[in-house]
Amino acid sequence: MTSHTTPDALTSHPITLMVFSHTWKHGSYTSHQGIRGILRKYDETCTPRNIHLLELLSTSIYIGLLAHYVMLPPTKFHTSSTQQGFGLREYLLTIFALSLITSWSIARIAGPLLVILCLGLSFPNPIYPDTNLFGILLFSLLLSLCQLHFTYPPTPLLLFSSIYSFPLAVFIRRTGIFFAPIFLFLMFLLSYSMTDTFPPIWTDTLLRICVGPAPMQTRTALFCAVLVLLVTWGFVIMSLYSDDRWLRFSRPVGVEAQHSFFKCVTLYTRPYVFPAPLNLLAAVTVKIPIHLRVFFGFNLSVLSTVERVLWRITVGPFTMVLAGLHKILRIRITRTSDYT
To answer: Which of 138, 165, 222, 313 is exposed most, by the fewest CB atoms within 10 A?
Structure first.
């Protein structure tokens, strides 16, 4: 189902969509066979939706740490005796970046990988402003923020109904490429038409000397052009309507959105998934010994038991809380709909 060679009729079939939607919310029935009683109920909280929420939370913490670092960077002292070393922020960034590298796909590890390289090259000193490494950190932050808009997890798109968010995201990505050049050019002109409103720090830039502040008519015209472009884009989105909510923005957009959603469900439909940064602990205690069992003779069943127990201790409490919150929210929504 995750391959683009799958027939569109099978991908868009209501039963297929219903199965994947149910698996996303409640997990796979075959993931915890052989387990009975309360432990089975406990393990069944390892649903793709809950694991994705935990991974999205860890990604948000990583982005927050990186944003805090570039907004409030370390202060560089002139005397060598008062130079700072690695602090708590640097170590936390290293841990989260390493865990995301081992958790994400190759297409998304560029941001955390750049952070690891920058911290490694600056060790044991922190990364100070006005350096090339600090510029790379800024680029990594912007890249991580942009990647949140992709249809590959972890993404905030999965916090909303996938039947609405995924087709809209795919459509915006496709049409955004068409509108991007003129939109960026208009924003550039609008920004530099208001150079007299910027702080004095920009007064010595060559571009301001060459362009200078524009008349009010020019500013108003550029601002209106940007608004017209955004409104036109909105009308294009709203004008495309179909009875099939997945295919409202055309069949190719809907099919691509469905494939993206299926990949998200498949990625998390595994028993005992460890989100970042707990996946580092699982890698040391379970994953690496599994790969080395040929050389050291580790028992695979023992390692599977260790993985299961480790998940129940570290990840299980969080998924149980999320499952309880989902249940409470579902009950409240049901009661509200009964009154209306």
So the answer is: 313
